[in-house]
Every structure is written in structure tokens, then in C-alpha cells.
């Protein structure tokens, strides 16, 4: 196995190391020992053989701001393989440092007009073709020891109300479980990746602050360890990117940002599902199915996302569309994922508004849950 020294002075593998999994139960035990978490109940579990590939952040594996179709793959993997990303970069090419003032950091921010995220990838999944879906399973997401929340002027949900920029730093506890906001207010960490994307349609680079059926800037609070995200494929190999690490965030992210950080240990499993039509990103957690919609405003984001959810659930369950509509009205919960009314931006693009709809598994029988799962995971040979 070849190793190299990364920018943080730590040795990291660049070759893949093969791990054997003896059936689903043994695979889960190995995940628990090696990654610190188990996949969600009912989610795909590793079977047969899997490989772990380590992708170290450097100038060849990170594109700041853009999802570039011309970038060479950071790793080429088989379906079911795991990618380990040690010591991921902070936004803006890992240049921010703890305690920098807003004025010290502002020149860094302005150097990257295509967007702030240090996008890692792309990951090429062998056999992935347009019309397929890649399942992105977060096995481990352990953040570094600190992060920040910031709000430049003229951004967020209330751009008219604040005439000074805001920047607040946070230290995390040793177990990466909590951070103190102020005396008497403590935040429970809920770390995950804010940006996952397959390469968007077309042959031009796309800013990662944008979003669509391919994913992009999702900022979904629920995408943490033990959850899965399903994204459609638009290019051979899928070409999957990730970035924009969060330690915690609220629905809406109304002041523009989450608690921004990086990951000292990020492990993602990528599973290919053949011939699965999917019009919007779908996520699975241990407790919910979630669909994400985008639009020029929250109204349009909800309408587009809901139509996609009705198409998926009515087909998967062979349910009349009006019944699916009623099910989502009675049991579903629709929330603002991200809401902003920016008056000004240094970036070349303005992202769409985002809504997500959540259907609790508690109202679904095991058979119905399995049918929803099978609708996304069909065509995956050897999957358990």
C-alpha cells in the first residue's frame, strides 16, 4: 500500500486496501469496529467483498467552488466500496484559521467567486450510467475541534436588519458531542456534509452552491452518520463530489450559514443501483424518508419537491396519486431547508431556495417500508 504525507503532516494511504466481509452480520460488525457506527435499520448492508480507498485532500483532489466535469477522478471504485476522507479541508481551500477576525478572513472569502466549498472528488463508480442512482451512505463524520458561524452583510433571511457582519467561533468538546454557544446555552453536535452531488448535466463546470436533482448544496440537517442519500447519475461513473462540512445547523439556516467546520474522519460508502428513475434527491434515515425540492422561492420549492415525492411514492406503492397526496398531507412534514433573501453576494451564482418533505417510517408497515426501499435499490446484484 502506497502512502503519502498530506498537508496536515499525517501519513495517508493513496492505494486501496481490501477488506473482507463475511455476510451482512460480519460486515456490520466490521463497520462498527472500523467506523464507529452502524448503517440505519433497513438500509443496505455490505456483503461479499468491499474495498476501502483513502482520498487525501490536496490540489489534485479538491476544486474550490466548482463541480468540474474535466477533473480527473480522485478514486475509481466498485459499487459498495468505501471512501475514507481523512482531514478534509475547511471552506475556501482550508485557508481560514481559528480566531481570525472578519476583516482578516474577508480577503480569503473574496478569492473564491465560484463558491466557498472545498469540493472533494470526483469519485468514479464503475458501471454507473445515466439513468442509474448512486446511494451515498455516511458511515462516519467526526469533525475537527472547532468551527464558526458567520453572516456577511446583505445575506440571510433578514438582510435589511443587520448593518455589521457577524463571525463567531466555537470549540467542540473532546468527544465532538457539544459546543457552548454562550453561558447557559449548549448545542448538541449533529455533524454531516452539506454538499453531496453527482456531476450535474452538461459539459461545463457548475458552482457547488447551486442545487438540483443531482444534489449540490443541500444543507439537510438529517444527513448525518447512519443515513443514506440517493442521487441520479448524469455522467458515466457518476462522478460524486462532497464538501461543506457542518457540525450543527437548524432548518432554514436563516443567517446564511451553519456551524461550518471540516472532518478529521469522514467515511462514505457508495452503492450503485441500476435503472432507477429518480427526479429529486431522496434521503433515508432510521426514522424517515425525505425528499428535497428547489425553486426560486419556498412556494416553488415545496411544489416541485412534493410533485417529485408523489411520483415516487405512488409508483413505488402502486398507490393512486390522490391517495399519495393525502398521505403526505396527513403524515408528512414540510420544512424550509434553506431560506435567504440576499441583497448582495460576492459569488457568481445565487442558489435556489430549498424545502424538504419528511415521511415518518412509524406510519408504515415493514412491508410498505421495504417496498419504498426496493424502489430505489432495485437492480443492485448481491445486495442484502
UniProtKB/TrEMBL annotation:
InterPro entries: FmdA_AmdA (IPR004304), TAT_signal (IPR006311). Gene3D superfamilies: Acetamidase/Formamidase-like domains. Pfam families: FmdA_AmdA. GO terms for molecular function: hydrolase activity, acting on carbon-nitrogen (but not peptide) bonds, in linear amides. It comes from the Bacteria. This is Acetamidase/formamidase family protein. It comes from Caenimonas aquaedulcis. The lineage of its organism: Bacteria, Pseudomonadati, Pseudomonadota, Betaproteobacteria, Burkholderiales.
